[in-house]
Description:
Blueprint: H1 3-10, E1 23-28, H2 43-51, E2 70-75, H3 83-100, E3 102-107, H4 113-124, E4 128-133, H5 153-159, E5 163-173, H6 179-182, H7 184-187, E6 191-194, H8 204-220, E7 226-231, H9 253-262, E8 268-274, H10 285-305
Parallel strand pairs: 1-2, 1-3, 3-8, 4-5, 4-7, 5-6, 7-8
Helix pairs in contact: 2-10, 3-4, 4-5, 8-9, 9-10
Bound molecules: manganese (II) ion.
Amino acid sequence: MTSFAFLAQSGFLKAPPATDQPYAVAGIAWDGATTYRPGARFGPRAVREASHMLCDGIHPHFDVTPVGQLGDAGDLPLPNTSLEAMRAAMAPLVRPLIARHHMAWIGGDHSITLPLLHAYREYLGRPLAVVHFDAHCDTWKDHFGEPSGHGTWVYEAIEAGLVVRECFTQIGIRSAASRAAREYVHDQGGLIFAARDLRGFVGPGQLAPAVDSIRERLALHGHPPVYVSLDIDCLDPAFAPGTGTPEAGGLTTNQLLSLLEDMADLPCVGMDCVEVAPPYDHAELTSLAAASCVWTYLCGQIAAKAGALPAG
Ligand SMILES: [Mn+2]
């Protein structure tokens, strides 16, 4: 087996190396900004491996597969150094991938999202709407005395004008935090669906109003392009134990998949899935949930662009 063939077998959904496919994934295997349990640097390889169980990739809801339209750009060759050096190395690697493919980025800790938003903001020439799934608000103004970390990117993105404040939506928030941090997005004009707000809402019909309110915001604010940032710790630790800062009382995998399915018609430009930390995983629960979410997102985008979204 040539090394090229080996690469093709180890990519996300066994996708071949990224060349000119419309969709691609890339790993960002960096976890130098984790605050509790490190390990998210091993996320990309675990999520890829879990995705191999998805076989031909034909999605049961969307009835499409990314196979044949998807490339895997491998892990970005980043230095295992400071946050600043990593981000500086990341920027020139990200830009050509965004220009060539609709990307799904696999982290890594959540500090990778800020440079990604910078890249999209620059490439698209306009601020983005963000749908942010997370247990944590990530609106802290500093990282234990340092200016930036994995829990500051929301505050930084809003301050830097990378996003449309009114079109910033958080889903699943529940960690300990001061009111100022917890409600920051709301105070800026955005939307928050805390984990508590979604208790008891289990099916697509019950969760659709949440996505409807995101749609209304987008329509009111000029239909900005949507970026989806998915911290796997939005899920309850029962569904995603393999993560650095687990928080009890989270979403179920079914809730998350229902929301992602419902969002397929939004004008999405890219997504990331971060904070999968395989050293704390059990039975690949977390990496399989992450792979399923990335796969569902990609299939939703493919079906939407083909004008073939299922009714309901
Ligand atoms: Mn988080």
